[in-house]
Amino acid sequence: MGGGGRYPYPREVWSPSGGWWTRPKNWVSNTIIAGLGIGLITYNVFKVSARNEWRYIQPDRPIPSMQWARQYKEQNSTSSTDAS
Fold it and tell me: Are 75 and 54 in contact (CB under 8 A)?
């Protein structure tokens, strides 16, 4: 059952997925390194986006980005100092 065994294949063929029957021994560490890289890039893009976000037309109801956008943090800090 299952379509037969492995057959000989040319070694000089390159494939982005690694070729036929690939199972590298260090796939776990490669996956962890790739995940950490993606997470680091995502975090940095988020921080730059939150720092540069500015809304010229104010939303009529609270939106999630109001929790981390610099514009609203500055407004909250100035309004809290004005209230005291």
Answer: no
How high is the pLDDT of residue 43? 97
Chain mean position to CA 19? 27
Closest CA to 51 of 77, 70, 64: 70
Model confidence pTM above 0.85 = no
Other beta carbons within 10 Å of 41 = 10
| Count helices and strands in the chain by DSSP H and E runs | 2, 0
pLDDT in tens, 64-74: 888 888 888 77
- Euclidean distance between CA atoms 59 and 51, whole angstroms: 18
Tally Cβ neighbours within 10 Å of residue 65. 14
